[in-house]
Amino acid sequence: MTRTLLLALLLTVGSAAAASTEVQNVRLWSGPEGTRVVLDLSRPAEHSLFTLQGPDRVVVDIRGATLAGSLPQASGSVRALRSARQPDGALRVVLDLASSAQPRSFLLPPNETYGHRLVIDLAPREQAARPVKRQPAPQGRGRDLVIAVDPGHGGEDPGAIGRGGTREKDVVLAIGRELARRIDAEPGMRAVLIRDGDYFIPLRGRIERARAHQADLFVSIHADAYHNQSARGATVYVLSQRGASDEVARRVAERENASDLIGGVTLADKDDMLASVLLDLSQNASLSVGAAVGQSMIREMGHVTRMRRDQVQRAPFVVLKSPDIPSLLVETAYISNPDEERGLSDRAHQRRLADAMLVGIRNYFHENPPPDTYIARMRSEGLTEPARYVVARGDTLSAIASRHNVPLTVLRNHNNLNGDRIRVGQVLSIPGSSGG
User: Fold this and answer.
1) Which residues of the chain have pLDDT under 50?
2) pLDDT of res. 281
3) Among 120, 144, 182, 100, CA closest to 392
4) Euclidean distance between CA atoms 278 and 218, whole angstroms
5) pLDDT of residue 260
6) First to last CA, the chain
């Protein structure tokens, strides 16, 4: 009798444990790269995923789980969500799709913001790697420089969070948008925003999007964090040599499946040695340009914020690994520092940071323009387009003149100013400048 009772008790406990996973919340993010569905779990759980057609659906069965609350409104490629309890005790979640998608699911462990999560990524089936041809420039004008601006994190990934609740993904998107607007206002430059909303893009997806647009420069914008709140200052990174070597090895291994070009040359028909040499040459050239642009950016950012390092640093960040695009990662400040968190949240400071980044980029490319660009043509003809500067809160005309190495009287006369009074948002033309 005792043995039977003990067995029944064990079965009861085992059954309760099996059903102890709770789906606490379901969240959706949609973006150009697809839709991400995130299920917040009380603990890890076994799951299975399969697709159905006529109509298109993705079905997820979560073993021994229950749903707390209601399902969210659909968005992106998800037309509707529904759930049901299965006879074996599993929770079934069905995603009705607006169009066919390629699903991928995986579990994530807890981080500073979320607990255990089951993530389902839905990529459009028709999304394939296609070579994108650069649009021909008007006859004789030269093409625009293409600057890829990548606000880090997004969607499910908030990045670092300050003590005041400021989320990295929000402030870097604001700074990125400001930088893109300024780039688009520059003659001979065009911005590509890698992320222009609250959605997640995988790290290598960010690289590939920049490559699809044949970007001349890739700038990834972030905000740093550290357990010591006194840590402060901005830092600019390029790829480390170790990271570059690892990427060359990966690209060589995958070259048979590559449908794109590296530096205008396909690797698919090259042997390992030649492919490695070509990648090394392309990567080294990109690193050299990236470091030079980064140093130019550091000089300008130092006028508007404290720099943690006055030299470009090296690190193996994945987003810096494009073999043929000079790439930078800018840590704009420490969001974990209360003072710097407030600065990152201030629109005027965001504008000043964006202005400094633009001037740094402009300085380099006006001295070293790619030969087929509009800026190169202007330079060869002895012409320079005036730089533009958007006045931010706290700016003075004398400080702006000093930053751009222009005499105050020249700046005043060039903009038809009777005195030194300027207003926030006013656009000044910087005369006789080759970039700042």
Assistant:
1) 1, 5-18, 127-133, 244-245, 247-249, 251-271, 275, 277-278, 433-436
2) 58
3) 182
4) 21
5) 46
6) 89
Cα separation, 331 vs 314, whole angstroms: 13
Question: How many residues are there in the chain?
Answer: 436
d(CA 433, CA 419): 22
Pairwise CA distance, residues 319 & 321, whole Å: 6
276, HSE (Cβ side, Cα atoms, 13 Å): 8
Q: Which residue has the tokens 């700042």?
A: 436
Q: Distance between CA 154 and CA 156 in Å, rounded?
A: 6
Q: What pLDDT does 96 receive?
A: 93
Spatial contact of 333 and 343, defined as CB atoms under 8 Å apart: yes
Contact 119, 57 (CB under 8 A): no
Place of tokens 């400094």: 356
Query: What are the start-end ranges of the H helices in 266-328?
Result: 272-301
Label residue 31 left, alpha or beta by phi (over 0 means left) and psi (-120 to 50 means alpha): beta
User: What is the pLDDT at residue 248?
Assistant: 40
pLDDT value, residue 76: 82
E-only strand ranges, 109-188: 116-124, 145-151
pLDDT at 343: 95
Rounded Cα distance between 120 and 140, Å, is 49
Which residues face 260 on adjacent strands? none
> How far, CA to CA in Å, does 425 sit from each of 32, 154, 391?
31, 28, 5
| Angle ∠(97,210,232) on CA atoms, nearest 5 | 105
- Between CA 58 and CA 97 the distance in angstroms is 7
Which residue type occupies 322?
Answer: S
- Considering only CA atoms, which of 392, 385, 402 is closest in space to residue 422? 392
pLDDT at residue 400, rounded to an integer: 86
Rounded Cα gap, residues 223 and 235, in angstroms: 9
pLDDT tens column, 169-197: 999 999 999 999 999 988 899 999 999 99
User: 85 CB contacts (<8 Å, ≥6 apart)?
Assistant: 91, 92
Rounded to whole angstroms, the Cα distance separating 154 from 150 reads: 11
Residue with token string 């980044």: 357
pLDDT for 316 equals 82
What the block records as the tokens of 206 is 């960010």
